[in-house]
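Can't paste images in this forum, so I'm doing it all in text. The chain is below; anyone willing to post the predicted structure tokens underneath?
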Amino acid sequence: MQQLAAISPAFVALALTALLAACQASTLASSDAPSGAPVYKGIVTRLLQTDLVQFKVRLANSADPQTVQDYARCAAAQYTLIRGYRFARHVRTTVDRSADTWTADAVYTISTDMPRGFKTIDAQAVAADCVENNIPMV
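Text version of the structure:
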């Protein structure tokens, strides 16, 4: 009971940075968001299997569908780290637009080892990039 799992300092720093980014994102989601800045409207995560995860994300105030795909990728990266994995592989993403709101429905596999395939991500590197670009995560 006295033994605790070792948590790397880099993971703790990344988690705290992600928490700060989420707080900043909630501030941007208010009516004070700069004109033309994306308004991140939330992430819904659903575990489909032990290593298969679905992310539904919404954002407004963006003319570019790539922005909502990046939002889903950031959610996948952070979720991968939270679950104790290091890598994710993109399976599919569908994007839809209704008025000024974009939605993405993305599915990723998560793993401790680099998965086969071309659309793999190093979760720690992607999460750091998301923090740098002020894209909120899970």
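The chain has one domain: 9-132. The longest helix spans residues 9-28.
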